[in-house]
């Protein structure tokens, strides 16, 4: 590895790039050590899985694979590695949303003129519902299941775990029955309002981030993974990943501990 890094240094690679490559290659050697592989003979699928635990964004994954690919080429190993992370749709790193960020958004939502639009935005940030999903809700979509307030409309299912939203939906249902739509605001209006809220709050957050954080809330409350999958709109792989983040040691930490124990005299 030192010879490889020295060669890159002589080619004019920057100090930061060399440090990044060094970290990647140390982790690559931990992978080889963990599975008792040689760098000339290893399982690529296991490598992708191992690397994706530490390098969780697509950009960092590509950088890591580039470093390993160059390292193998330097050692005259002919392997063409994939630069696309496994299961790209579920690969996005979980971004916990801070309480102060939620409070900032709630403050901005209070200033909206439309009460229904306020309710819709609260449903986005607290329940992870997308504007298109909110548009599909009817008065009859909101109710109670086993004494728990819920929203159910086709595949759209959410436990209403926010008391303010619960009170607002009860009021809307009473006012609108038997009128079909629960929220009258159009999907386009909700999307524009959401975008403006993020801009005013100076937050780079998407509806998917709020959906993930709703998943995290349910997991912290103790709901089992299968129930969270059913009531969050997230698939099993994504919920399992967030569950590892919220409740369990990361795979990387477990591997580090195993290797430490193995190397102890």
Report on the structure:
With 265 residues, the chain is mainly alpha-helical. It has two domains: 2-90, DNA polymerase, domain 1; 99-208, no CATH class. The chain contains 13 helices and three strands. The chain has helices at residues 2-10, 15-35, 44-54, 58-74, 99-110, 115-127, 131-135, 163-176, 187-201, 207-220, 225-230, 236-247, 251-263, and strands at residues 142-145, 148-153, 156-159. A three-stranded antiparallel sheet has the order 1-2-3, with helices on one face. Helix 10 packs across helix 12. The two termini are 25 Å apart.
Q: Which secondary-structure class do the elements indicate? A: mainly alpha
Tally of individual domains = 2
Helix content: 55-70%
Main β sheet profile: 3 strands, antiparallel
- In whole angstroms, the N-to-C terminal distance is 25 Å
Q: Please state the CA-atom Rg, rounded to the nearest Å.
A: 24 Å
Q: Give the spatial strand order of the biggest sheet.
A: 1-2-3
Strand content: 5-15%
Mean pLDDT: 89
Number of strands: 3
Q: Main traits of this protein?
A:
single chain; 265 residues; mainly alpha; DNA polymerase, domain 1; 2 domains; three-stranded antiparallel sheet; 13 helices; 61% helix; elongated; DNA-binding; Phage integrase, N-terminal SAM-like domain
